[in-house]
Amino acid sequence: MLTVDAALAKVLEQSEVLSSAEVPALDALGLVLAERITSDVDSPPHDKSIVDGYALRSADFESGVREFEVLEEITAGQVPTRNISPGQSTRIMTGAPIPHGADAVVMIERASLTERDGHPARVLLDVDRLSPGQNIMRQASSMQRCEAILAPGVALRSIELGMLAEVGRTSVRVTPRPLVAVLATGDELVTVASVPAAGQIRNSNGPMLIGSARQAGGSPVDLGLCGDQNDVLTERIRQGLESNVLLLSGGVSAGVLDLVPGVLQSLGVQQIFHKVNLKPGKPLWFGVRVRDGRKSLVFGLPGNPVSSLVCFELFVRPAIRRLAGHTILSLRRVRARLASPFQQRGDRPTYFPSQLDQRAGKHFVTPLAWKGSGDLRTLLAANALALFPAGEHSFPAGHEVDALLLPPAS
Ligand code: AMP
Ligand code: MG
Fold first, then answer.
1. Spacing, Cα 188 to ligand 2 middle (Å)
2. Mean pLDDT score of the chain, rounded to an integer?
3. What burial class does residue 238 get, using C-beta atoms within 10 Å of its C-beta: 0-12 exposed, 13-18 middle, 19+ buried?
4. What is the band of 115 on the pLDDT scale with cuts at 50, 70, 90?
5. pLDDT top residue among 119 and 263
6. Which residues does ligand 1 sit against, CB inside 6 Å?
7. Were both Cys, which of 61, 136, 286, 327 would link to 130 (CB 3.0–4.6 Å)?
8. How confident is the model at residue 388 (pLDDT cuts 50, 70, 90)?
9. What is the pLDDT of residues 322-362, one digit of tens each?
10. What is the mean pLDDT of residues 123-141?
11. How far is the CA of 308 from the centre of ligand 1 (A)?
């Protein structure tokens, strides 16, 4: 059976970055940039005042002048009309351009103004020192016109959206979100809005996987649920193959109604692997179909909710992120100490739902009282998966293990 690492390598071998597309910049949050961005402006566009105050010549101050004539008042958005000569100043507001001749600004709080006919006339300074350039932000000191500011591959945060706006970009070329179709299979499933009758359960994997797909950077397509019949399965899976990624839950184990692998093969999906050496999640099926130059990645996830979730986080998340152009693909992995002794028995490497916390800069992990792959409820308290090797082990408190951090809500 394939190891987790070998299976992930096979998944990533099949996962190629999608072709780029132009999107409105406001819709680009979280997407990966697919072009180089250069600035079409200097920032700031002029020498500007960073305080409300008086622009004047520092040489005047140096030679002992403390009282200045006030020529005019300019606010942000206006431009100066008067040059500053010895003994003169301009009342200036934050962001306004420095008038020609001035080389420093004194804060308004350190100056007292006398007015004549309702207009600023003279100002008396109450400062001990004034150096050239004080309270002035120089033109282009933040960014120069024609300077490259963002490179392809950058994942766009709100900071990048702000910079795109500063350089005049209303649209931007990015790698789009992969379409991720989600179809839950199983005769026992009823919709979330239904009350399950005897033998039935609600389809919890569908909403969970839709959430996971969105969190990983995909655009989910909800295909609902489908019973274990070859003809309906074939129809719905055909529909799912229109997407870049198709996630199926259930029907890939060894039961009599585990029809998914057969249906996939009949639709021309080439199996890459079936079964991986891990717990939970061993029945995972992975394959690809290329049609008309378009590739679909197909994951047959085990029906048990925790198996589905673990397979998603280990194999599907990295695939979606690769398609979306990201370079960080997998969950963050840390070394953590067991907070208390732990007995672990399993015939496969186990990703154990756990609580991870930090004390004095160190990670500690507490495996939860988890009842197996059907027990999603216990995972409400989980924020990590602790990795234990196959075999029967008694681990003492303080023993170090790898832990994968489950993604937080936001
Ligand atoms: P399967 O992989 O189809 O053999 O299903 C394994 C277990 O997962 C069974 O107990 C199913 O009832 C359960 N299961 C399958 N699909 C879902 C689903 N969509 N939501 C919740 N549980 C499911
Ligand atoms: Mg089933």
1. 8
2. 97
3. exposed
4. confident
5. 263
6. 184, 186, 188-189, 201, 203-206, 249-251, 253, 255, 302-305, 374
7. 61
8. very high
9. 999 999 999 999 999 999 999 999 999 999 999 999 999 99
10. 96
11. 9
Distance 197 CA to ligand 1 centre (A): 16
